[in-house]
């Protein structure tokens, strides 16, 4: 794993944007397909929500593969959505997904003990009545810290799926390498996430100033959220490539992003 300066985080974000600009429609379609399938799975009673969490690595591999195809000058086809669902890799990615599920359950328990039960009732009342809720400062702080822990956990596991898929690592070894790769490159990820969030916040503020609180503004902001999710996915692919090396390309493909390094 190469040692890189913290400023590389901005480069990852820029190169992720370059990848997205090459095939935005294909990546957006892939995102909506993943969201739809995830919602359908989560709707299954009892085990649906847990199954959806276990399948997160399989969903994420679709984006990783799509970014690899774009980098190599290939068209992203709908079949890429099945990248992480084919045998025998599905079984291995589901083992990575069990780690995601374990982390999710731990964070759920922390939330249950750290936040008062009436916090959610007040938030629900605010969303239905529109009246401002009086929230305890300690509950708001606890939720912020839990959100930060959730983000750290997801980022720490972001390379586990591609390491399992491309490097053929055993799932728990891939989790180990992913965690320490992110830990070793913590400065890079902090710069990347701060830049990502800063741009996102600025864009949302501009939309709010121009369109106000209209329904059109809410629709536009929702699209911006989807756009920035894709931008982060592309940036994480660039990060994987920089740290672990370029994944194997399909025969006859051509490299386009490396020329801009």
TrEMBL record:
Coiled coil: none annotated. The keyword Transmembrane applies. Keywords: Membrane, Transmembrane, Transmembrane helix. The chain crosses the membrane at residues 31-56, 96-115, 140-165, 186-210, 216-238. This is Transmembrane protein. It comes from Massilia aurea.
């Amino acid at each position: 794993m190469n040692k890189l300066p913290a400023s590389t985080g901005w480069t990852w974000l820029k190169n992720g944007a370059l990848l997205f600009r090459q095939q935005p429609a294909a990546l957006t379609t892939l995102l909506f397909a993943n969201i739809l399938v995830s919602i359908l799975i989560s709707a299954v009673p009892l085990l649906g929500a847990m199954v959806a969490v276990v399948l997160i690595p399989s969903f994420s591999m679709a984006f990783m593969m799509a970014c690899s195809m774009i980098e190599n000058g290939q068209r992203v086809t709908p079949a890429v959505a099945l990248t992480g669902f084919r045998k025998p890799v599905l079984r291995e990615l589901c083992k990575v997904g069990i780690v995601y599920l374990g982390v999710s359950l731990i964070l759920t328990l922390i939330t249950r003990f750290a936040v008062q039960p009436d916090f959610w009732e007040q938030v629900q009342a605010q969303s239905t009545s529109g009246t401002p809720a009086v929230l305890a400062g300690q509950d708001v702080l606890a939720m912020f810290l839990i959100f930060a822990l959730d983000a750290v956990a997801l980022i720490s596991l972001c390379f586990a799926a591609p390491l399992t898929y491309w490097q053929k690592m055993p799932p728990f070894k891939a989790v180990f390498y992913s965690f320490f790769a992110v830990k070793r490159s913590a400065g890079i990820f902090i710069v990347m996430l701060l830049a990502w969030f800063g741009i996102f916040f600025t864009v949302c503020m501009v939309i709010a100033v121009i369109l106000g609180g209209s329904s059109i503004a809410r629709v536009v902001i929702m699209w911006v959220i989807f756009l920035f999710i894709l931008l982060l996915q592309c940036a994480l692919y660039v990060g994987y490539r920089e740290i672990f090396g370029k994944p194997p390309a399909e025969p006859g493909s051509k490299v386009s992003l490396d020329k801009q390094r």
